[in-house]
Amino acid sequence: MRACEQRGCRVPDSPFQDYLDLVEAARELGIHPQSLRRLIKQKRVPAVLFAGKYLIERDKLEMFKSNYDPRPGRKPIRRLL
After folding, report:
1. What's the CATH number where 23 sits?
2. What is the pLDDT, as a whole number, of residue 69?
3. In which domain, by residue range, is 36 found?
4. Among candidates 49, 26, 51, 24, which has minimal Cα distance to 36?
5. Fewer beta carbons within 10 angstroms: which end of the chain, N or C?
6. Within a domain: 2
7. Residue 33 counted as domain residue
8. Under 8 Å CB-to-CB from 32, ≥6 apart: which residues?
9. pLDDT of residue 44
10. How far apart are the C-alpha atoms of 41 and 57, rounded to whole Å?
11. Within a domain: 22
């Protein structure tokens, strides 16, 4: 890498810089990675499976995030005493 920089050649950008992995995307949405995995399997979040890991495009995640309304979990059951 340094030898290339010294000679003035340009190193191409990573093709994955516009993608987030499952954990990063879940953190961005404020949800658990397992919840995001479920949304991907339901085809609600577009993702690419690469080398056994889900990758989500930043732009598509932002579009999903603007329309996503995370519902709270199940309401606790009221018990009569």
Report:
1. 1.10.1660.10
2. 77
3. 12-67
4. 26
5. C
6. no
7. yes
8. 26
9. 93
10. 16
11. yes
Sheet holding 19-21, edge to edge: 19-21, 53-57, 48-50
**Cα–Cα distance for residue pair 47/19, rounded to 1 Å:** 9
List CB contacts of 39: < 8 A, sequence separation 6 or more.
45
Amino acid sitting at position 81:
L
What is the count of structural domains for the chain? 1
Q: What is the pLDDT of residue 81?
A: 65
pLDDT in tens, 1-48: 556 566 666 655 777 789 999 999 999 999 999 999 999 999 999 999
How is 23-73 classified by DSSP, letter by letter?
HHHHHHHTS-HHHHHHHHHTTSS--EEETTEEEEEHHHHHHHHHH--PPP-
Q: Decide which of 15 and 57 is more confident.
A: 57
Residues 6+ apart with CB under 8 A from 5: 11
